[in-house]
Amino acid sequence: MDITIEFSPSAFKHNVTEDDIRWAFDTAVYDGWFNEGKDGDRYLLIGFNRKGNPLEILYYFVNDETINVFHAMTCRNIYHHLIRKEGNYGKND
Questions:
Q1: Which residues does residue 20 pair with via DSSP β-bridges, in sequence order?
Q2: Which residue segments constitute the domains of the chain, with CATH numbers given?
Q3: Which of 72, 66, 71, 30 lies closest to 49, judged by CA?
Q4: How far apart are CA 7 and CA 66, in angstroms?
Q5: Sheet holding 40-48, edge to edge
Q6: What string of pLDDT tens digits covers the 93 residues of the chain?
Q7: Burial call 8-45: b when 16+ CB within 10 Å, e when fewer
Q8: CA–CA distance, 69 with 56 (Å, rounded to integer)
Q9: Which of 73, 68, 79, 76 shows the shortest CA–CA distance to 13?
């Protein structure tokens, strides 16, 4: 089953494009539970943009077939251990 990705305006606050967010889902090296928010469980995904740089993406499930991405930015150092844990590294700009 394919998942539909919806985007909140806040997903673009840090100038990450929709194409790069979708690419990050396709190249994910980490995807796991993050915390519980007002919309229910939130998940953290670490993937790469089209230049190979790591991104952190936060999302929640709208329903069984749809997720909503509400945060996307260059991956901060606090999450780099998740990349190393999986044995994957992004390229530097």
A1: none
A2: 4-86 (3.10.450)
A3: 72
A4: 11
A5: 4-7, 66-74, 54-63, 40-48, 30-37
A6: 589 999 999 999 999 999 999 999 999 999 998 888 776 799 999 999 999 999 999 999 999 999 999 999 999 989 888 876 555 544 433
A7: beebeeeebeeebbebbbebbbbeeeeeeeeeeebbbb
A8: 11
A9: 73
